[in-house]
Amino acid sequence: MSFFKKIFSSDKKETLDKGLEKSNSSFFTKLSKAVAGKSKVDDEVLDDLEEILVSSDVGVNTTLKIIERIEARVARDKYLGTDELNVILREEIAGLLSETNTGEDTEFVVPTSSKPYVLMVVGVNGVGKTTTIGKLAHQFKKQGKKVVLGAADTFRAAAIDQLQVWADRVDVPLVKQQMGSDPASVAFDTLSSAMNQDADVVIIDTAGRLHNKVNLMNELSKVKRVMQKVVPDAPHDVLLVLDGSTGQNAFEQAKQFTKATEVTSLAVTKLDGTAKGGVVIGISDQFQIPVKYIGVGEGIEHLQVFNKYEFVDSFFK
């Protein structure tokens, strides 16, 4: 298929294949049973496929869109063999993802139009937020960018300590205050420091509690307002980090955070430890927010730029 040409380097593709192995294996075990002994895609096969997609955490609404697309193909082509189903799935899901994920990036890039480029990271505790920040800092530094981190999750001492560990590991400066400090004050100091150092990228961590959405909304709004005193159009990206292994719970977190603040991109982590990789497809479609990064392993190089063609190719390999 023409648009599934190789884009990633072989080692990155191998890491992605391995990271999605559980999702891939689970999906195809179910699909093989569903089409066993059948030669064409009929209503029964489509019913089974619908069930498989939902159980793979693609989500009901997105699953129905995929089934409708395949039904349209069946009606148009008159006869579709079950041996073609895998190819059709890849095409239709890549098409669906194209509606949200327009970028074709394969590398970690930072827009040169904004300096410093300010990235605010949100997400509940335990989703891999700090790890994602550390890995992003590593990748941007590899690109020759000067990176500054800000520990504005002052609600937990552990959050500040964990970010310090990553800052030391990647060898980038971290701006922090004591636990309980005003997060907006930390953000202000971080951006001021970044301006003084002529930094290219600033990554700000924020608190991850959802028990009171009004407080979260107010806090994130204040952090943004204070940032803009230093960098008028900051933040340039609000990245929501979601744990892919939680399946439908990740949908709920996305719903809560998109109500609390404007989220402009997503990172879905921990896909290597789960068979719920379909959640990437569903969340991207349902929230119409591009998935920018995916985590497919624990290593520092295992955070990847999300490329829809490579993802679909690995998921339905």
Layout of secondary structure:
Blueprint: H1 10-19, H2 21-35, H3 43-55, H4 60-77, H5 85-98, E1 117-122, H6 129-142, E2 147-152, H7 157-170, E3 174-175, H8 183-196, E4 201-206, H9 213-227, E5 237-243, H10 248-260, E6 265-269, H11 279-287, E7 291-295, E8 303-305, H12 308-315
Parallel strand pairs: 1-4, 1-5, 2-3, 2-4, 5-6, 6-7
Antiparallel strand pairs: 7-8
Helix pairs in contact: 2-3, 3-4, 4-5, 4-11, 5-12, 6-7, 8-9, 9-10, 10-11
EC number: 3.6.5.4
Membrane topology: Peripheral membrane protein
Subcellular location: Cell membrane; Cytoplasm
Your description of this structure?
The chain has 317 residues and is α/β, with parallel strands linked by helices. The chain has 2 domains: 9-98, SRP54, nucleotide-binding domain (Four Helix Bundle (Hemerythrin (Met), subunit A), Up-down Bundle); 117-306, P-loop containing nucleotide triphosphate hydrolases (Rossmann fold). It contains 12 helices and 8 strands. It has helices spanning 10-19, 21-35, 43-55, 60-77, 85-98, 129-142, 157-170, 183-196, 213-227, 248-260, 279-287, 308-315, and strands at residues 117-122, 147-152, 174-175, 201-206, 237-243, 265-269, 291-295, 303-305. It has an 8-stranded mixed beta sheet with strand order 3-2-4-1-5-6-7-8, with helices on both faces. A hairpin with a 7-residue loop joins strand 7 (291-295) and strand 8 (303-305). Helix 4 (60-77) packs across helix 11 (279-287), helix 5 runs antiparallel to helix 12 and helix 8 runs parallel beside helix 9. The longest helix has 18 residues, at 60-77. The two termini are 13 Å apart. The mean pLDDT is 90. Involved in targeting and insertion of nascent membrane proteins into the cytoplasmic membrane. Acts as a receptor for the complex formed by the signal recognition particle (SRP) and the ribosome-nascent chain (RNC). It catalyses: GTP + H2O = GDP + phosphate + H(+). One of its GO terms (cellular component) is cytoplasm. Residues 290-303 form the SRP54-type proteins GTP-binding domain. Its EC number is 3.6.5.4.
